[in-house]
Every structure is written in structure tokens, then in C-alpha cells.
Write a structure and sequence with these properties.
By secondary structure, the protein is of the alpha+beta class. It folds into four domains: 159 residues, 3-Layer(aba) Sandwich (Molybdenum Cofactor Biosythetic Enzyme, Chain A); 47 residues, Alpha-Beta Complex (Molybdopterin biosynthesis moea protein, domain 2); 85 residues, Molybdopterin biosynthesis moeA protein, domain 3, CATH 2.170.190; 70 residues, Beta-clip, CATH 2.40.340. Strands 7-4-6-5-9-8 form a six-stranded mixed β-sheet. A hairpin with a 5-residue loop joins strand 20 and strand 21. The protein is elongated, with a radius of gyration of 31 Å. Magnesium ion binds next to loops.
Length: 394
């Protein structure tokens, strides 16, 4: 039986780089850039007034001039002003270009204007005060975003500044999602006491949504070999197939057998992890991967986080998701002879990991309120107060 690290290495080693596509900036939230981005011009593109006030030439001030005649008013977006004459100034608005004959802006709050002459209630003036100078943020043609950047709100704003109405991003993988089980019914159907609702379909769709992935095929299959075979045979060209249930040791757990009969090459079955031990993974003849997850909701969530997310992240060129290390609050005894994973909330100052009690791995609450999935390695019998513990953020 492989452990978590080995299994993750096997899976991430089989990643296939995502293709690319061009999309409108409006649709880019959360997508992964697939091009390096360079500035189209200097930023700021001109010497920009950062305050409402008066633009003067500091030579005049140094020569002793204290009363300045307002030569012109400059609004944001205006250009083409006449050069400043000795002893004159511009009245200028925030965001307006400061003409080259001026080199300092004095705030309106520090000025007293009487008719067309202004004086200032300040003793010193520094050249280029209250002016953002052309190119001081970044020069034209410099690299500003790398391929693999995630389109966060700040990145989207930057792309808009650069006039990128369309960008090249990584394509999303083609995913098929199947839940299985005779006892599992749709969430709107009438339910008998011996049945349970198909929560995992919604859990897995929601986990995929974080990556902006919507399964192209999504359905439920009963525990029937022929039906499993028929349905699965139609998606063998997909990038990722996710199934849930039917991979344990029960008499109706047909998935490993069916998948192998369809030509899917087994990578492993059963791992030394808890929860999630029954996980089955295989590679499709076309190169994609099949993740056959156990049916218990918590096992399903944990194996998705540990393995499917790592694989998707690798395909996007983002590397394996990084673990965060934080101090543990409380005490936790390892209950199996495996690496264990459990939900935690992050709170307190300094931030610590607080375990959230779950009953069995079938607990419908799935560690409600958890911020992360914490890792209890098999090497540690007990996690003690203050121990540094690895976790994966939800
Ligand atoms: P299995 O992995 O098929 O043996 O299922 C393990 C447990 O998870 C059983 O109690 C199932 O009823 C439950 N289960 C399986 N599939 C789902 C599902 N789609 N939604 C909620 N629970 C499920
Ligand atoms: Mg089942």
C-alpha cells in the first residue's frame, strides 16, 4: 500500500499541460494566464498631479516669489498648455498632466487664492512633490505579469490598464463525474428510510467549481457492472474521470474491475491514509486520469483535496498546492497506523489550528466551519499543543 506522498508523486508525475485559449477579460476571473504580459507604455504615462492644487516651477520659489499669478486651469485629460512664465502657476486637478515647465504641486489646502493670484501657507517645497513621475511605476516594454499568474481582481485591473481586452489562458480540463450506488437517490426525489441523498455529486461539483471546472458529463449510476461499463466507455477520451463509491471491498464494489476491463491502467488501489483508504486511481489509454473515490462524504472530500487538486494544479502549471504550517491547539491522538487528515479551523492570535470533531468519515457535517485540512503524519502518535502541523487550505 502506498502512502500519501508516494501516491501524490505518481499522480502529479502524470500531469498533462493544459491547452490554451483566448477569452474576453470580462470572463477571466480565476483563470490561469498562459502568456507573459509586458507594459505597452510608461506608467504613469505622463507626470501626473496626485493632488488638487497649484503647479509651479520651484526655480521661482527659490528666487523668492511667493505670490503666483494663475496662468491657466488644467483638468484631468487636458493637454497643450502654454509654458509657465516667470511668477505664474497652473491651477491643477488630481489626475491631470503636469506640463514640463512645472515641477511641483502645492495642495489646495495649503493655498490662498485671491482673484487670480495665489500664495501658499508653507515654508518649503520639494521638487516633484505631489507629482507621480512618468515611468516611475514601470517603464514601457517591461515584463509585468508571468504566464501562470492567476487572474485575481488586481491582475484583472492591471490587464485592463494595459488595454488587454482579450487574454490567453489555460483551457479547463474536460471532466466527467459519476456517483454510484443503489442506495443513493437524487436530492429532489422521494426518499425511503434505507436510502440516502446524493450529496457527493454536489460536493464534488462544488469542489471543482473552485477551479472553474464544470463537469461536461455528470450522472448517477447504479451498482451494475454492465451499466457502469456502458456509461464509462463513453468518456474514455476525457481529461479527468471522477467516480464516487464502489471502490471498497463490498460485493457490489465493481469499479476497479470495470475500469480495468475498459483498459484503464491501475496506478494504485488503497492507500495508507485515513480517511480515504479505498481510493483507486488509474490512467486512461488516452493519457488522462481516473480518480475512483470512496463514497463516504469526508473520504470523498479529503481524496479530492489531496489528489485531484494536486493533479489539476499541475496541469495548469501551478505546481503541487503548497502546505501551510501552523501551530496546533489542543491534543490529538492518532487512531490508525496511517497518515491521517482532519478538518481544522484557523483562529486566535497568533493563528492556530483547532481540530473540528467529526464522527465517522460518513459524518454529514464534513467538519462544518473548517478552514483547512490538517495532516497528522504516521510518525507522530500524538499532536500536542504548539506542534507545527501542515495543512491545506479549503
Ligand atoms: P461506498 O464507497 O460505495 O461503499 O460508499 C460508502 C458510504 O458512502 C456508504 O454509506 C454510501 O451510502 C455513502 N455514499 C456513497 N455514495 C454517496 C453519495 N453520492 N452521496 C452521499 N453518500 C454516498
Ligand atoms: Mg456503494
Amino acid at each position: 500500500m502506498f502512502n500519501y506522498k508516494t501516491a501524490q508523486q505518481i499522480i502529479t508525475g502524470l500531469f498533462r499541460p493544459s491547452g490554451t485559449e483566448s477569452i474576453a477579460l470580462d470572463d477571466a476571473d480565476g483563470r490561469v494566464l498562459a502568456e507573459d504580459i509586458y507594459t505597452d507604455r510608461d506608467y504613469p504615462p505622463f507626470n501626473r498631479a496626485t493632488m488638487d492644487g497649484y503647479a509651479i516651477n520651484t526655480n521661482d520659489w527659490e528666487k523668492g516669489t511667493r505670490g503666483f499669478k494663475v496662468q491657466q486651469v488644467i483638468y484631468a485629460g487636458q493637454t497643450g498648455q502654454a509654458e509657465l512664465q516667470a511668477g505664474t502657476c497652473y491651477k491643477i486637478m488630481t489626475g491631470a498632466p503636469v506640463p514640463s515647465s512645472a515641477n511641483a504641486v502645492i495642495r489646495r489646502e495649503d493655498a490662498v487664492q485671491v482673484d487670480d493670484t495665489v500664495s501658499f501657507n508653507i515654508d518649503t517645497i520639494k521638487p516633484f512633490q505631489n507629482i507621480a513621475r512618468q515611468g516611475e511605476d514601470i517603464k514601457a516594454g517591461e515584463g509585468i505579469l508571468k504566464s501562470q499568474s492567476i487572474c485575481s481582481p488586481a491582475v484583472i485591473s492591471l490587464l485592463a490598464t494595459l488595454g488587454k481586452s482579450h487574454i490567453t489562458v489555460k483551457s479547463l480540463p474536460k471532466v466527467a463525474l459519476f456517483t454510484t450506488g443503489d442506495e443513493v437517490v437524487g436530492i429532489s426525489e422521494e426518499i425511503k428510510p434505507n436510502q440516502i441523498r446524493n450529496s457527493n455529486q454536489y460536493l464534488l461539483k462544488s469542489l471543482l467549481k473552485k477551479w472553474l471546472i464544470k463537469p461536461q458529463v455528470c450522472s448517477h449510476i447504479i451498482d451494475d457492472k454492465e451499466q457502469l461499463k456502458t456509461v464509462l466507455s463513453e468518456v474514455l477520451n476525457f481529461d479527468i474521470i471522477i467516480t464516487c463509491g464502489g471502490v471498497s471491498a463490498g460485493d457490489a464494489d465493481y469499479l476497479p474491475e470495470v475500469l480495468e476491463a475498459l483498459g484503464v491502467k491501475k496506478l494504485f488501489h488503497k492507500l495508507s491514509i485515513r480517511p480515504g483508504k479505498p481510493l483507486w486511481c488509474g490512467q486512461l489509454p488516452s493519457g488522462g486520469l481516473v480518480f475512483a473515490l470512496p463514497g463516504n462524504p469526508i473520504s470523498c472530500m479529503v481524496t479530492f483535496k489531496l489528489f485531484i487538486e494536486a493533479y489539476i494544479s499541475m496541469c495548469f502549471g501551478l505546481g503541487v498546492p503548497k502546505l501551510l504550517q501552523l501551530p496546533f491547539k489542543g491534543s490529538r491522538k492518532r487512531v490508525s497506523s496511517f497518515d491521517e487528515f482532519f478538518p481544522v479551523s484557523i483562529s486566535g492570535e497568533p493563528s492556530m489550528l483547532h481540530p473540528i470533531h467529526t464522527n465517522t468519515s460518513g459524518d454529514i457535517r464534513l467538519g462544518l466551519g473548517a478552514d483547512a485540512l490538517a495532516f497528522h503524519p504516521v510518525e507522530a502518535d500524538v499532536l500536542n499543543d504548539g506542534d507545527m502541523v501542515n495543512c491545506l487550505l479549503f
